[in-house]
C-alpha cells in the first residue's frame, strides 16, 4: 500500500464509527431499504476512503451478485460491500454502488446505530422492491 490520501467531506457525513474517517454523504444515499445481517444498511452512489477486498460471487436475498467487501482506510475495519455486478436484470441499478452497514458507521448527527449483537458482516442484502 502506498501513502493513503484521506478525503474530507463536507455536509451531512457518515463516518467510520471506530476512527471517524469520513465515508459518505447523506446526499449520496440511494436507498435506505437495505438490510445486512444485523439490521439496516444503506445503499450509496459514492463512498470515499475505502479499500476494496477481493471480488466474489455472493448469493443475496435478491439473487446472485458479484460483490467486494469494503474496508475503512483509517482503521481497516470492514464497513460494507460494493456491488460490482448483478446477475439479475432488475438488480442492475446496484452495480458500482456501495452498501454501508448502518451499525458500522456514525450518522451525520453523531448517532450510532447498534444492530443485534455479533459482528459478522456480509452475507445478506435486501431490496427496495
Ligand atoms: Zn475506520
TrEMBL record:
Entry's Gene Ontology molecular function annotations: metal ion binding
Yippee domain boundaries: 12-109
Keyword Ion transport appears in the UniProt entry: no
Entry keyword set: Metal-binding, Zinc
Keyword Hydrolase in record: no
InterPro entries: Yippee, Yippee/Mis18/Cereblon, Yippee_fam
Span of the signal peptide: none
Family classification: Belongs to the yippee family.
This protein's name: Protein yippee-like
Protein's organism: Tetracentron sinense (Spur-leaf)
Amino acid at each position: 500500500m502506498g501513502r493513503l490520501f484521506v478525503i474530507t467531506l463536507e455536509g451531512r457525513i457518515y463516518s467510520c464509527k471506530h476512527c471517524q474517517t469520513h465515508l459518505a454523504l447523506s446526499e449520496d444515499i440511494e436507498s435506505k431499504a437495505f438490510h445486512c445481517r444485523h439490521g439496516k444498511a444503506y445503499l450509496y452512489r459514492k463512498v470515499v476512503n475505502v479499500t476494496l477486498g477481493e471480488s466474489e460471487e455472493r448469493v443475496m436475498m435478491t439473487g446472485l451478485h458479484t460483490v467486494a467487501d469494503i474496508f475503512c482506510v483509517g482503521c481497516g475495519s470492514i464497513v460494507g460491500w460494493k456491488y460490482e455486478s448483478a446477475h439479475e436484470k432488475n438488480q442492475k441499478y446496484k452495480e458500482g454502488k456501495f452498501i454501508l452497514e448502518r451499525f458500522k458507521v456514525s450518522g451525520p448527527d453523531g448517532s450510532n446505530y447498534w444492530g443485534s449483537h455479533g459482528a459478522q458482516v456480509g452475507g445478506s442484502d435486501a431490496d427496495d422492491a
